[in-house]
Amino acid sequence: MAQGEDGCTLIAEIPSDYKTFGGVLQVRIDRSANRGTTLHATAEIPGQLYDYGKSKQTLADLFADVLALPGSRTLGTGITAVPPAP
Fold first, then answer.
1. pLDDT (tens digit, 0 to 9) for every residue of the chain, 86 residues total?
2. What phi, psi does 62 have (nearest 5°)?
3. In whole angstroms, what is the distance from residue 25 CA to residue 55 CA?
4. What are the boundaries of each domain within the chain?
5. What predicted TM-score, i.e. pTM, was given to this entire model?
């Protein structure tokens, strides 16, 4: 984890399975006074030519979990708003 002035970056391990080697999930959370909170994420399975959809599924699961939070909303394609925690 790396803490920034208006956000943070988290790096996590994607576990290996029968189709892929382990990978890296990087999530950056930024706070903005006028836009709320934004989440940027990348997933990579290094050393493997094809990941058989593992990266896309990992990101889809992450964003589905974020959107399931109370008060979360999508502002447009790829733009999601999550209200600040009380």
1. 888 888 899 999 999 988 888 899 999 988 877 767 788 899 999 888 888 888 888 888 888 888 888 877 665 555 544 444 44
2. -60, -50
3. 9
4. 2-81
5. 0.73
